[in-house]
Input
Amino acid sequence: MKKTAVLLSILLTTSLLSPVLGATTIDPSKIHFYMYGMATCPHCHRMREEIPKVYGNDSLTYYELVDNKENQQLFNALYKYTAITGVPAIAITYNGTLYAVLEGEFNVSAVPQIIQSAMKSNGVLLFNGKWYIFPRNDTKAQEAIKALYTIFVEHKMPAETSTSTTTTTSTTSTTHTQTTTSTTSSTSTPYTPPVTSTSGGSSGICGPAFIVLLAAIPAILFKKMH
Output
């Protein structure tokens, strides 16, 4: 897979910080994936094949974006917390707990190590071109983690998002980038993860799946830490 090197980089970085990384045994049967994707995306198609092949037919919940307004709205809400605009966008849970959100195609065999890294870091890992950590002991991070869980696992709008008034125009083109305008009213402040590790490329992603210019939300949600 095209993101294998990136995944190995984050796992190596985390293992250096935590020598006992491999101490926790991960039961593959307790891993579940939630994916937003497009029928026209070859990376989404490969992930939909690879995940069940490795973890079983019941290991993946898939949300199609093409011609599905509900899923499009949820995917647009995902941008607020992750800055993700491409597909596949995948959340990884273990025993019902969210441990990672990734943008793009990746080596699914590395998922147990990703979960172990998140456990040792006591957070939720995010990959959107770079790796970040949402620490569970941080109040704002807890809010973001809850929102991501709601969008992926519960498949509904987070409470603070659903109470805002938003008018948007979206595009599903995977070859052209178009900027659209919208109006929104929201008092929430986007969460900025405090930790980032190695950067990665953008291969393995179809997108931008949706380009939405939100007036009340900065174009760059995350400050890159060095």
